[in-house]
Amino acid sequence: MNDNLGNWLLTPAAMGRADLAAAGSGIDSYGLMEKAGQAVAAAALRLFPGGLRFAVLCGPGNNGGDGYVAARALAEAGAPVAVFHLGDPARLKGDAATAHTACWLSAEPLERYQARAGDVIIDAIFGAGLDRTVPASVADAITAVDGLGLPVIAVDLPSGLDGRSGRVLGAAFRAVHTVTFMTRKPGHLLMPGRMLCGSVEVFDIGIPRRILAAELGTVAVNGPEVWRRVLPQGDGEMHKFRRGHLTVFSGPAHATGAARLSAMAGLKAGAGLVTVASPSEALAVNAAQLTAVMLKAIDSRGDLEAYLCDPRHGAFVLGPGFGVAKRARDFALALRDRRLVLDADGITAFRDEPHSLFEAFADGDVRLVLTPHEGEFGRLFPDLATDDGASKIDRALAASARAHAVVVYKGSDTVIAGPDGRALINTNAPPSLATAGSGDVLAGIIGGLLAQGMPTFEAAAAGVWLHGEAATRAGASLTAEELITHIER
């Protein structure tokens, strides 16, 4: 566990247990609710000081209690406020009932809410705890708000989102800003939840870290705190072979560019030596484009096995531009005792017999990194890809356990999962990474880190994060070639 609270994630259920533990430790639970509601009111006034009306929509639980506190605080600050409730407020319990009693404003049923221009919505209906389709009255309110394009500030999580998976449960508000408490939830980071939360503010309401730490699972936010201590560092005795040798397999003469992108990325990531293993027919094409990267003719499995006699050839990238024929499977299986990043065509080549890949890498230390996007994930794990009840984290972890591999489940919400149950959600990748060759660069970065001896899970996590940072430095109009030049350790 790292000490950076910004990297911690708690599921809604875990956060609920932390709330109960805080109250059980003697902390005033209503005081926590007061701090939460006041933080929401402060955010609303900061972001929309000229709001014509703050429409506070309060639900039947503690999220609604936060809303009643926020409504009272807004009114006390002189803002125009209208309160609407879902369900019968007389049935509120505990702190939510106390908050409702303390809110002297009159309230109307949610069904009577009429959206009007100038409204700022405070969504305090459900928050992160919802696990069922929203009722019709909430769906109607969402439709009305969307229809006028009204700004929404969500309390904890936009109502209608599953805080565990980020899925929309029938309908969900699209917030411009979300105020959550103590830690983020997976639903803030997983798609489509990430797109519906707007900017996310994490407010510390005073629950001790020791209580939160007791509820932490094996899922966190990716960042240097997770892997910095094992990131390879140079020393005075360093030479190129001690920095590791990465081999990247090239495709045929008409498809060599992807391998060269991976190779150059591996070199920038710190590998001491990088070789492009090329079919003889593509040697001239590759030679014309390579300088610091070496070139080796490898046409057959026999050629590869001879190459593997040198134990310094320890890390490999296979897949970018390689083709999906039997040769891809043969080469991957020949590498069963080496560290391998299997990407793109290398993944697709096993779509009809994924078990042969999994069996080859099943024993010993984790040596295999799979980097599928959504479609490729479905080719290797069709049953997991269609499991609508599982979150992206659940699917990645199940795939990782089955394959005995680190799985980099790519997307705008990339998840890195290991067979030991650890998972990370990456958050620093800009939209500009959706460009040709970007995935080839990522495979090369991870391969370069593996070549230097970095542990497999940490190499994958660091590679994903460094890839995102490079894209941010490269700017909105990046190309894959430019992306490589911005890789920094």
Keywords:
potassium, UDP-N-acetylmuramoyl-L-alanine:D-glutamate ligase, alpha/beta, ADP-dependent NAD(P)H-hydrate dehydratase activity, Carbohydrate_kinase_pred_CS, 2 domains, elongated, 489 residues, Ribokinase-like, Rossmann fold
How does the helix and strand content classify structurally?
A: alpha/beta
Tally of strands:
17
Mean pLDDT: 95
Number of H- or I-type helical stretches = 21
CATH arch. level architecture of the largest domain: 3-Layer(aba) Sandwich
CA distance, first residue to last residue: 22 Å
Q: Portion of residues in helices?
A: 25-40%
Low-confidence stretches: none
Protein name: Bifunctional NAD(P)H-hydrate repair enzyme
Cofactor: K(+); Mg(2+)
InterPro entries: Carbohydrate_kinase_pred_CS, CARKD, Nnr, Ribokinase-like, YjeF_N_dom, YjeF_N_dom_sf
EC number: 4.2.1.136, 5.1.99.6
Would you mind describing this structure in some detail?
By secondary structure, the protein is of the alpha/beta class. The protein has 2 domains: 5-216, 3-Layer(aba) Sandwich (Rossmann fold); 224-485, UDP-N-acetylmuramoyl-L-alanine:D-glutamate ligase. 40% of the residues lie in helices and 16% in strands. The protein is built from 21 helices and 17 strands. The protein has helices at residues 12-24, 29-47, 62-76, 94-102, 136-148, 186-189, 193-196, 209-215, 224-227, 257-268, 283-287, 301-307, 326-334, 345-348, 354-360, 374-380, 382-385, 392-403, 438-451, 456-474, 480-485; strands spanning 53-58, 81-85, 107-109, 119-124, 152-155, 177-181, 199-203, 219-221, 245-249, 273-278, 294-297, 313-318, 339-342, 368-370, 405-409, 415-417, 423-425. The protein has a 10-stranded mixed β-sheet with strand order 8-17-16-15-14-13-12-9-10-11, with helices on both faces. Helix 13 (326-334) links the parallel strand 12 (313-318) and strand 13 (339-342). Helix 1 packs across helix 8. It is elongated and about 80 Å long. The two termini are 22 Å apart. The mean pLDDT is 95.
